[in-house]
């Protein structure tokens, strides 16, 4: 099965960006960990990052056409994007929202997500491990 893992704005800076909040793991580290887990679970991983909302929308649409599941860390667009909400709703594939940090322990503007209502579930606060947990969760729902 094919799984898209999409990452939103500023996540390309992981490793050097606010390490106290996001850890020292880079996005490349997360990608290689996801590929390893994907191999174990027999999942084909398509891993991407963009700082551009419309590109993320295009990729969610693409995932809806070709993939069996979606893992997305929409980053700041989590809290702003109706377009990403609509794209996930329309894609009609099981979607897991991931955040490295525990957004509920942070500023109030991070407490609302446009993505959660269209996600199967949400994993936040476990750093890069959240991506692994999301892959494991997805593997149980796409292969009943
Ligand atoms: C984030 C949390 C968001 O609030 C923030 O805008 C990010 C990263 C996380 O992974 O913890 O860019 O999605």
From TrEMBL:
Coiled-coil portions: none
Transmembrane segments: none
Enzyme class at the top of the EC tree: lyase
Site (Transition state stabilizer) residue list: 17
One Pfam short name: DHquinase_II
Pathway membership: Metabolic intermediate biosynthesis; chorismate biosynthesis; chorismate from D-erythrose 4-phosphate and phosphoenolpyruvate: step 3/7
Keywords: Amino-acid biosynthesis, Aromatic amino acid biosynthesis, Lyase
Gene Ontology molecular functions: 3-dehydroquinate dehydratase activity
Entry EC no(s): 4.2.1.10
PANTHER family: CATABOLIC 3-DEHYDROQUINASE (PTHR21272:SF3)
Known function: Catalyzes a trans-dehydration via an enolate intermediate.
NCBIfam families assigned: aroQ, PRK05395.1-2, PRK05395.1-3, PRK05395.1-4
Identification of the protein by name: 3-dehydroquinate dehydratase
Species per Swiss-Prot/TrEMBL record: Stappia albiluteola
